[in-house]
Amino acid sequence: MPGILERPVAPTRHRLDVDAFYKMAEAGILTESPRVELIDGDIIDMTPIGIAHAGRTNRLIRIFARAAVDGHVSLTVQTPLRLDSYNEPEPDIMLLRPRRDDYVDRRPTADDVLLLVEVADSSIDYDRGVKLALYARFGVPEVWIFDIRGGAVEVFREPAGGAYARSERVSTGALKPERVPDVAVDVSWLLA
Asked: Which CATH number covers residue 122?
């Protein structure tokens, strides 16, 4: 009976899957405030949205709305992205492949994403680290991180091996998503 008396050497992690995460929300254990997301089976408290963050998000919505109205993309704001059973982050903005059902029947996945945007004020290290690696791991083709305090947009393209092969930091000029070239963002105006 040596197996019964043996104890694990270190504590083990219990990962939640997306179904358990939603059951907790339905039971009232998780509420809308504070906002949370599921990353690698862990419930992560999201930082509150400040004025600068909200304003930049609103500017992006205004720019991207025309492409959505024209039917070139589906525009979603702070909604979940289903990556697998243990990962469902909530990016600030996503431009998705348009669907007739407007994603009523299922959550968008990495294959649906044309552009994913994180607007970062106090969350810049988390967005550049944990979330960017997660997006690369699941093949999100293009990620923009708006570094409000740093006054620039960090652009990441070509996910491979859990990282992005191409990246650049832009603080002026026009920026266009590769998969939605009809949309142009004036970076100086956005960050002003």
From this structure: 3.90.1570.10
